[in-house]
Amino acid sequence: MINIWQAIVLGIVQGLTEFLPVSSSGHLVLFQRLFGLTGDMLYFDIAVHLATLCAVIIVFRRDVWRLIRHPLSKTALLLVLSAIPAVIIALLFKGLILDAFGGGYLAYGFLATAALLTVTDVCARAKASPARDIGIPSALLMGAAQGLAVLPGVSRSGATVCTGMLSGCDRETSARFSFLMSIPIIIGSGLMSVIDLVKSPVGLAPAPLAAAFLCAFATGIAAIRFMLRIIKKRRFYGFAIYLVLLAAATFFIL
Fold first, then answer.
1. Residues 48 and 214 sit within 8 Å (Cβ to Cβ)
2. Could you tell me if 104 and 151 are in contact, meaning their C-beta atoms sit under 8 angstroms apart?
3. Lowest mean pLDDT across 42-56, 72-86, 131-145
4. Cα–Cα distance, 17 to 12 (Å, whole number)
5. Which neighbouring-strand residues pair with 169?
6. CA 12 to CA 182: how far, in whole Å?
7. For residue 61, with 0-12 CB atoms within 10 Å meaning exposed, 13-18 middle and 19 or more buried, which class applies?
8. Pick from 138, 119, 83, 107: which is nearest to 26 by CA?
9. Closest C-alpha to 142, from 124, 118, 168
10. CA separation (Å) from 44 to 1, 3, 36, 115, 207?
11. Confidence (pLDDT) at 194
């Protein structure tokens, strides 16, 4: 059973890494192994996913409200379209994804994310053509990247933002669309976790859950705002170096 201090640490880790290009699932797998947490973590997953969902909605409340008021707008339709590849990939490779959460491939996921960040920086610096808005091809590609990013170690925000930039969109546009893309995916994964929890109920400890939720919510808001600030001017090299070092450490830890 997770204690309150472990819940606080994991909540902070989830909130920070969900929106930075370093893989929240990878960090959670790593920290859970370090803490020796091997039991059912469904209740914890529900709490932190709800927290990060609330963080996205708070930061992008104007965009969310605009989507609610105009459900048939171009952005709303592109968000729906982007969810399709992610769902298909998750269903087709469900077994592989579950096996990956054992941690055996975690370091390779970190290295893959580092490589993608580096390639994106190189291509962005070399690109001469003007950036364009998100269109159907970009939305589908970003959706496919989001589907592949369910693998631990592969960053969802990193994969989607980089895919958007490589498809010709600018950094800020790719980042904002990436964060909005996370809303239906987080809702969907949360509902699946609730269904699994109903099928196989586990004991719930209110204090660790509340602590994890609050920490993930607060750090999630901070991480989104930080990412939106740095993505306008800075490169991804720092995150790539961090992931390479983390991958090296992971080979020895797991």
1. no
2. no
3. 42-56
4. 8
5. 132
6. 18
7. exposed
8. 107
9. 168
10. 11, 11, 15, 31, 11
11. 66
Distance CA(252)–CA(254), nearest Å, equals 6
Q: What is the pTM of this model?
A: 0.88
- Average pLDDT rounded to a whole number, residues 192-220: 78
Least confident among 99-113, 137-151, 198-212, 213-227 = 198-212
pLDDT, mean over the chain: 86
Any idea which residue has 């991958």 for tokens? 247
Asked if the model's pLDDT at residue 79 lies above 70, the reply is: yes
Query: Which residue is associated with the tokens 């994969």?
Result: 159
Query: In total, how many domains does the chain have?
Result: 1
Range of the domain at 222: 4-253
- The closest of 182, 191, 190 to 158, measured between CA atoms, is 182
pLDDT at 101 over 80: no
DSSP state of 234: -
Residue 209's nearest CA partner among 97, 60, 45, 55 is 45
| Pairwise CA distance, residues 59 & 115, whole Å | 29
Task: Return all residues near 234 (Cβ < 8 A) that are at least 6 apart.
Answer: none
pLDDT, mean of residues 35-52: 79
